[in-house]
Design brief:
By secondary structure, the protein is of the alpha+beta class. It contains 8 helices and 15 strands. The relative contact order is 0.16. The model has no long low-confidence stretch (mean pLDDT 97). The structure holds pyridoxal-5'-phosphate. The site of pyridoxal-5'-phosphate has 15 residues, from helix 6 and strand 12.
C-alpha cells in the first residue's frame, strides 16, 4: 500500500487515516466501494480505466444502501480531481489499483443508513491480480450467493463481502483457486470477486444482470465492445451449472482478475484443460485497452499524469 492516502477531504499519511470503532462502517460493514486500475501507458502516462463508470457505480451502491450523504458532497469532477492528486502524490511507476470507499462514519447510529455522515477514503496498492493469467480451477461453493432481496450483489457493499470470504475460503480449503456462486435455484452467479463467461460454439454467454451478481465494469466492457471487436456475439441469460462443465471455454472478468482463463470446475476439465483461444484473444485485447494501445477505446481512459518519473 502506498503511503499517501485520501481521507475525508485531503491527502494524508496512511497511518493517520482512522475510523471510529463506534462507526457504522466498523459495526455493520456499512461502507460501499469500488476498485479501479491505473496502468502505465506506452509513453509512461498513468491511465485510469472507466473512472466515470466506477464513480457512478459507487454512487449507485450508496443509493441502494441508503447512504445519502455521499452524493451530496461529491461530483464526478471533484472525485476525478482527487484521484489525480492521489496518483501524482504517490509517484506511481507501475500498474496499481485504487480502492475508493465511502464509509458511514456516524457513531452509535443503530441499524439504519439514511441521514448519516459518510467519509471517502482512497488508497493505492500494486496491481497483483487475484487470479492467475495462466488459468484457475474453481469449486462450486457450498455457500449460496446472497439474493437481491437480502443484500443486493449489485451494490458493492463491504458487509456483503463476508459472503465472498466464506465461499473463497471454502474453495481454498479444498485446494481450488476460487469459487463459483450459485443462487438459491442453482443457477450460476459469479466468482467471489469476478464475473464469469462461457464460450459455447463460438458464442459468449454470461449470466444476466438479474442473476444476483455485481454488474462488473469489465463484464460490460467485454459485452459491449471487446467481444464485438473480435467478431463474437454475446448472450446474457440464466446459466446452469452443468453448462459450465461442457463449455468449450470459460473465463473470469474483473478489475482484480483481469481476464483469467478457467481451466477446471469441480474436478472437470474445461475444453482440453488449457486456456481457450477466444479467451486468450479477449485477454490480450483487454490488456492492450487498459494500457492505452487501442486508439478506438481511448475514450475509456483518463490520463492522470503525463509521465512516470
Ligand atoms: C463480486 C464481484 N463480482 C464481479 C466483480 C468484477 O467487477 P469489475 O469488473 O467492475 O471489477 C467484482 C470486482 O470487484 C466483484 O467484487
Amino acid at each position: 500500500m502506498y503511503q499517501s492516502v485520501f481521507f475525508g477531504n485531503k491527502l494524508i499519511n496512511a497511518k493517520d487515516a482512522k475510523l471510529s470503532i463506534a462507526s457504522s462502517a466498523v459495526l455493520y460493514g456499512l461502507s460501499v466501494y469500488t476498485v479501479f486500475p491505473v496502468c502505465i501507458g506506452t509513453n509512461g502516462e498513468r491511465l485510469a480505466f472507466r473512472l466515470r463508470d466506477h464513480y457512478e457505480r459507487l454512487v449507485n451502491s450508496a443509493k441502494i444502501i441508503g447512504i445519502d450523504s455521499f452524493a451530496l458532497g461529491w461530483t464526478y469532477e471533484s472525485f476525478a480531481h482527487q484521484v489525480q492528486a492521489l496518483i501524482v502524490s504517490n509517484q506511481i511507476t507501475t500498474n496499481v489499483y485504487v480502492r475508493a470507499t465511502v464509509h458511514v462514519d456516524a457513531e452509535i447510529a443503530g441499524t439504519r443508513s439514511r441521514g448519516l455522515s459518510s467519509i471517502l477514503s482512497m488508497f493505492v496498492y500494486d496491481a497483483q491480480p487475484i487470479l492467475s493469467a495462466e488459468g484457475v480451477r474453481l469449486k462450486t461453493s457450498v455457500w449460496r450467493r446472497i439474493p437481491d432481496n437480502s443484500i443486493p450483489s449489485r451494490a458493492k457493499v463491504n458487509g456483503a463481502y463476508v459472503n465472498s470470504v466464506l465461499a473463497k475460503q471454502d474453495a481454498l480449503d479444498s485446494g481450488y483457486d476460487d469459487c463459483i456462486f450459485l443462487d438459491n435455484a442453482g443457477h450460476v452467479c459469479e466468482l467471489s470477486a469476478a464475473n464469469i463467461f462461457m464460450v459455447r460454439d463460438g458464442v459468449l454467454i454470461t449470466p444476466d444482470t438479474t442473476s444476483d451478481l455485481l454488474e462488473g465494469i469489465n463484464r460490460r466492457t467485454v459485452i459491449e465492445e471487446l467481444a464485438g471487436d473480435l467478431g463474437y456475439k454475446v448472450i446474457e441469460r440464466t446459466v446452469d451449472l452443468t453448462e459450465l462443465y461442457i463449455a468449450d471455454e470459460l473465463f473470469a472478468s474483473g478489475t482484480s482478475a483481469n481476464i483469467a482463463p478457467i481451466l477446471g470446475v469441480d474436478g472437470r476439465s474445461i475444453g482440453d484443460g488449457l486456456p481457450g483461444s477466444i479467451t486468450r484473444k479477449i485477454q490480450s485485447l483487454h490488456s492492450e485497452v487498459l494500457h492505452g494501445k487501442v486508439k478506438k477505446h481511448h475514450g475509456w481512459l483518463m490520463t492522470l499524469s503525463a509521465q512516470t518519473k
